[in-house]
Amino acid sequence: MRVALLTREYPPEVYGGAGVHVEYLSEHLARLVDLEVFCFGRRRESPLVEAAFEPWEAITAGRPRRPHDAALETLSVDLRMAAAVEGAELVHTHTWYANFAGHLARLLYGIPHVATTHSLEPLRPWKAEQLGGGYAVSSFCERTALEAADAVIAVSGAMRDDILACYPAIDPDRVAVIHNGVDTEEFHPDPGTGALPALGIDPERPFVTFVGRITRQKGIDLLLTAAERFDPDTQLVLLPSAPDTPEVGQEMRARAAALAEQRAGVLWLEQVLPRPELVEVLSNSAVAICPSVYEPFGLVNVEAMACATAVVATDVGGIPEIVVDGETGVLIHMDLGPDGQAADPEGFVAELASAVNGLVADPTTAERMGALGRKRAVEEFSWPAVAERTVELYESLTRSR
Known about the structure:
A seven-stranded parallel beta sheet has the order 3-2-1-4-5-6-7, with helices on both faces. The protein is built from 14 helices and 13 strands. Helix content is 43%, strand content 16%.
């Protein structure tokens, strides 16, 4: 079966969980089907990449950049992707950036379209800050593509519920749950500490680690407030990437800098670490922290668990399907307001700080949770199984044609 996989992110341009998902899924799918990857950006050296597309520069040439230009540039790539996949027997897209290209390919060539949802635009209202009127465009692209898709993959049961609530026109029978995976050979417990000093991390002091994009979705502002209450000897290691907007990036950097003036051991390392270094950081963390206000799956939690590290996370979205409260970590309840942010930020921050301080002060419990987390990651979230379930879905669609 010839499958065209369409995605915005593909190595080395990976900045979020969706990109990591596509990176590993494509590797394992290629062992089962004839796979061609079509992505945004520069030409890749990977033999899986059939083509890569830069946005059409004429859209923004000769004028100051506008927030909605990003959405128009996405559509310029989608048009060329749809033209390029002719000959595929099935098209599989990831995120709204590529969903519309898959929809067009379905119309053009009469082939099934499978769309994996890593998030939903209606549940990310803060993106209007990033895209301006482009948020209405991204929402249109997502709705149109998902409602017409032959199958929609939800990365968690909670995500499936969100899909059906946001888009009631979608037949529930067309929505399948296939969890994200993790490479448990690459993400594994690493007791070495050789890379830590160069990053500014003191291996003799406990540290808490955050990994994620610079976006209000990830709750970085809540974490920075909670960190004011962390035990003074606890370091806070932030590994942020890809701000939603320059303004959000500047705001969070300023918040981190202000915190660093109040207490020692606040490290803002805005870089994508080589994977061995990331594994070392996660493995040696007293706690991995995920304070997201919206998280359809939460891959970073699985990665931390695979490194045998206890997790403190919110109980939103798909996270409770990953982190078992009291066994592999601690879940903090979060009620959301109409703006998609924490309804009681002060109460949440207090609980978050208490949970972190409790685990840092009780390394025996943290180690027990880490060991159980590693076991769960190996047994429940392997990429070969994810790829096999995905191909089974492909085959069910092609057989019905």
